[in-house]
Structures are given as structure tokens and as C-alpha cells.
Specification:
The protein is an all-beta fold. The protein is built from 1 helix and 10 strands; from the N terminus they run H-E-E-E-E-E-E-E-E-E-E. A 10-stranded antiparallel β-sheet has the order 6-5-4-3-2-1-10-9-8-7. Strand 9 (about 130-135) and strand 10 (about 140-150) form a beta hairpin.
Length: about 170
């Protein structure tokens, strides 16, 4: 498979739930393309068995730096695996978000949110690293979010969190 210069080659993942299970460091940049404002998020993501049902509960917790201020930030998603190694991603309340298929190492997803559109590119770059780029566009938002996830030890803290971000 050909890759663009500066972009890592995709790493095929036969079972997305097994691959994501565990704890990951997260380093994210957030750019508001209208205003030029930039911020960052740094935290931990956990993919653990979902007590509400089959699959994994994906929680992220950390700090968002925006406009010179630091705020606690987080989110929760649900990953529902399928027998073919793919998964359906849902919001915490169960509403569908997008599908995820990393069998070729890369996946693009789209999600309409009111009049805005979220377009995401997921790239597994190794056994212990993956990248996620969301481009959000519409009347309410014009943003670029670039995230790097690196596998962490179970006793991981943010003090050791690496975070070279992928190209846009």
C-alpha cells in the first residue's frame, strides 16, 4: 500500500476491540480554522469492558488548554464489536456515532451533527500507536482536531505521555 510522504504506513488490525482494549496516552491539538485559535488536550483513554453490555466503554479524561486557560475535559463512547473484527461506535447514551474498520489499518468515518459534518480518519500505525484526525465543518464549527494515541502501562500517568501529532 502506498502512503503519502510524512504519513506512517497503516498497520492492519484484524480485531479492533482486541487492539484498542487497555489504556492509551492521548495528545490532541485543536484548531479553530475560522478564528485561528489553537488549543490542546492531553490525557488518558481507557477501553475497558462495558458494564452496561457487550463491548468496551471508551473514556477519555485529561486537560484541555484553550485561550490561555486549562480546563478538565473528557468524553465517553461505547464500542460494540462485530464478529468480523469491525465495530460500531456509539455515544454514551447509545446513539450511533460511526463504524470503525481497521482491518486495512485505515478507516474514514463521517457523522452529521445538526448542520455540521464530522469527517474522521483513523490510522493504526503499529501495535501500540494510532492516529485520529477529525475535520469538522459547517455553520457552527470549522475545526481540525489531530490526536495521537500511544499504548500506556496500566499504572500510567500523564507525566510520561509522549505525543508527536500526525500531519493534517
Amino acid at each position: 500500500m502506498c502512503t503519502e510522504p510524512g504519513r506512517p504506513a497503516p498497520y492492519p488490525v484484524p480485531d479492533v476491540a482486541a487492539y484498542l482494549a487497555g489504556r492509551w496516552y492521548v495528545a490532541r491539538t485543536v484548531q479553530d480554522l475560522r478564528s485561528g485559535a489553537e488549543g490542546s488536550f492531553r490525557g488518558l483513554a481507557d477501553f475497558r469492558p462495558d458494564p452496561a453490555g457487550d463491548g468496551l466503554l471508551h473514556t477519555e479524561e485529561g486537560e484541555l488548554t484553550w485561550g490561555g486557560a486549562v480546563h478538565p475535559a473528557g468524553r465517553t463512547l461505547r464500542l460494540r464489536p462485530r464478529p468480523d473484527g469491525t465495530a460500531q461506535i456509539a455515544f454514551a447514551d447509545g446513539r450511533p456515532f460511526h463504524d470503525l474498520d481497521l482491518r486495512d489499518g485505515r478507516w474514514t468515518a463521517a457523522h452529521p451533527c445538526a448542520a455540521d459534518r464530522y469527517a474522521g480518519t483513523f490510522t493504526a500505525v503499529g501495535a501500540d500507536a494510532w492516529h485520529l484526525v477529525w475535520r469538522v465543518g459547517g455553520p457552527a464549527k470549522d475545526q481540525l482536531l489531530r490526536s495521537v494515541y500511544r499504548r500506556a502501562a496500566d499504572d500510567a500517568t500523564l507525566a510520561d505521555a509522549p505525543g508527536r501529532l500526525p500531519p493534517p
